[in-house]
């Protein structure tokens, strides 16, 4: 399969955004074939680009963030992974994956397209689950990228110590019995706090990013916990890494989220879990905390989002 086969069409974001479908090998999960989608902001004019990978129950819609990155001197691409957002086909189970390494296929295909469009250096940016995905991708494919930026990467379950320790084994057993079994559901607190219909600043497709999130299925959670365990064991990433997180978490360790925390903290993950892993990723890791940052730092209220974007652009400029 040649990943560089399709042309760009107008994207759902409109304006300068275009997208193209990336055909993938059939993974046996759902009808209508398996695809990913590469989104580009404007016409590429630089030799340096970023490739953004979204999180769970998510897709790329952060248009203003993309424009700010382009204004900062980088070309911008984003990838909707298989069975997410633009890549989700009728009849498919959203977000279904048996191993996060499956995503290597579309990331490699996207990188091939980006290089074919004249880019000599590519920075891989991952948010939340996407941060976990790109961390392991960089470990498996060290020569394919030049740097990694982690935006609130998901390295552990945000729950009590007992539930954290049991979640992996229980998910593995449940996956063996019924891989598609729904074993948990997300809180709508974070997504409701950012969507325009519920008082937030951002508009996005609620079919692709529902307020209540996608159901958490046994096989998916088992794959995530295996990947998180591999990161916790320690890696040796050979490229520079920037890890950016909020300074605080709301609802850490399974505690209740207060109204004051909703728009000023990471209410999805425990930032302490990210900090604990930073020293295990490699020898060149920079940790940057963002005061009043939300889970997706690029969607945080001002001035936190500008703080994150400045940190990202400044770090890339200095390191590359």
Automatic annotation (TrEMBL):
This is Serine aminopeptidase S33 domain-containing protein. It comes from the Bacteria. InterPro entries: AB_hydrolase_fold (IPR029058), Hydrolase_4 (IPR022742). Pfam families: Hydrolase_4. PANTHER family: PUMMELIG, ISOFORM A (PTHR42886:SF29), RE40534P-RELATED (PTHR42886). Residues 47-246 form the Serine aminopeptidase S33 domain. The lineage of its organism: Bacteria, Bacillati, Actinomycetota, Actinomycetes, Micrococcales.
